[in-house]
Amino acid sequence: MAHYKGAASEGSRAVNLMKQRERQKEELELLKKKIAEVRFLLYNFCACVEYHQLSQQEHGTTKFEVSDKFATSFDVVEEQLKSSTAGLLTLEEMKERREILVKAREQQVAAKLANKSAVESEAKKQHKRPGGGALSFAMEDEEDEEDEAPSPPKPKKKRLGKNPEVDTSFLPDRDREEAERREREELRQSWVAQQEKIKAEEIEITYSYWDGSGHRRHVKMKKGDSIHRFLAKVLEGIRKEFTELRAVTVDNLMYIKEDLIIPHHYSFYDFIINKARGKSGPLFSFDVHEDVRLVNDASVERDESHAGKVVLRTWYERNKHIFPASRWEPYDPEKSWDVYSIGDNKERANAK
Question: Its Gene Ontology biological processes (predicted)?
Answer without folding.
Answer: chromatin organization
